Amino acid sequence: MTSSQFRDAAVGFLSSRLVDSSGTQAATLQLRPSLQKVHEDLVAVLDNAVQLKQNASLLVIGEPGIGKTMVLQRVLRSSMAQHNTEPGNPTLGAVQLSGVLHCDERIAFQEIAHQLCSTFGIPFSRSASFDDNLAFFKEVLAELQRAFKTVVFVIDQLEAFMRAAKQTLLYNVLDALQHSQVQAVVFGVSCYFDVQDMMEKRVRSRFSNRKVFLNGLCAAQQDAEESHAAVLSSLLHLPDSFAPHEQARVKQHNSSVQKALASQDVKAALQEAVMAGMTPRELGVAALQEAVMAGITPRELTVVALSCLASLEGQGGQVLGLLPHHVAGALRGWMQQLDGRVPALQGLSVLELCMLVAAQRLEDRGTAVFNFEMVLDEFMGAKQMQLGFLWSRSAAWRAFRDVTDQGLIAFTASRPGSRGMMQRYLPAQLRVAKGELQRGLAGHSHCPDFLTKWLRGDALNSYISLA
């Protein structure tokens, strides 16, 4: 194999592993210790369901891009390899639903029927009605239990299925676990830590209180196993099984990755990425800064890794491996993408900025989903009602609608077109990263100092004259 062929093969292998979390290449990616512990716990749940006939339901919760989907795909792959020993006659089958694709309950039940039929070799009727698919769902689970087969339901973006009026899908799936004629496991996946509070009472009573939380990365130490540098290193690492007859080149590539990550330029760029990331978290590290900073998630590190591979792919045939300026350039290229909303923030009015900062304050306290009244109460409460003489409630509502029209806050309700007073109670979510908001306030020509202090965490107790 020539140098050019090895480079192309390495780029293709690593790119496939980064993009497709359910592919065979993804199985070679080493999980960081916290994810490995979650993997072992979830595999144990499936083992108990298959071997001991113990039904279970639990929530897998973590911030976006932290690795929830990757871990679950790895769990399904390893459990199926262990229990499905007879080709064409699986003991464990999986039904995977996405809140983006299957939030409509008619489509969801049709997809459940399709996946069950495809997995266990049952004829599928595409023309079946909603009631037919619901009845089929209950009947086929009972038949599978008699054949000693287990079904695992993976419901990604669980919160999307809670927008339905009666949450029929969740109720029927969870209600099935209560019957001895069914052998199944339900994994609910969400980035909302209060997702269980969104469930209807009858759904919540059937869902267990078991939760698995995926921790974020360690931003304090770049050399730790849970650090951003360690994750980026594992994303770019070639396993020994990649090219058994080219071990020298594999070792050369892995050595170049380690040398690149050890360079001061890359460490500085990685630290900048940690500070300017999209997912807010407070880092109390004196060596960095005594400020509220944000963490770059594994998903964003994947984007950086793909950029590194693009640099590797464009090298000449005489060079093998990554160089420090490739990694540093990819990190800084990722950071430049964060500035897309900053110009929009710099053109907002002071009241519109107040709405965004109040929403960010709610998010910092764990309230990721809010409505206009909650945002207004947060702002007015912090000001001890002193700004009530300056801005009316109707003016604040117009400012809130303006930032939603610009995409800085997005309604999450299934019917955001509601009219009248009820629109002020529609659930919404902030679409601006805290790092972007900080830079937007810093570059705003008329931003009052109290807003910057309030975003940093200070209380607003003094009267502000905006004349």
Please tell me about this protein's structure.
The protein has 467 residues and is α/β, with parallel strands linked by helices. Helix 8 packs across helix 11 (298-313) and helix 14 packs across helix 16 (393-405). It contains 18 helices and 10 strands. Strand 6 (279-285) and strand 7 (289-295) form a beta hairpin. The chain has 3 domains: 33-213, Rossmann fold; 225-340, no CATH class; 342-456, Arc Repressor Mutant, subunit A. Strands 2-3-4-1-5 form a 5-stranded parallel β-sheet, with helices on both faces. The protein has a 3-stranded antiparallel β-sheet with strand order 8-10-9. The protein has a two-stranded antiparallel sheet with strand order 6-7. This is Origin recognition complex subunit 4. One of its GO terms (cellular component) is nuclear origin of replication recognition complex.
Indicate the topology:
Layout: H1 3-19, H2 33-51, E1 56-61, H3 68-83, E2 92-98, H4 105-120, H5 130-146, E3 150-156, H6 168-176, E4 184-190, H7 201-204, E5 211-213, H8 228-236, H9 247-262, H10 264-275, E6 279-285, E7 289-295, H11 298-313, H12 324-336, H13 342-346, H14 350-364, E8 369-370, H15 372-382, H16 393-405, E9 409-411, E10 428-430, H17 434-443, H18 449-456
Parallel strand pairs: 1-4, 1-5, 2-3, 3-4
Antiparallel strand pairs: 6-7, 8-10, 9-10
Helix pairs in contact: 1-11, 2-3, 4-5, 8-11, 9-12, 10-12, 11-12, 14-15, 14-16
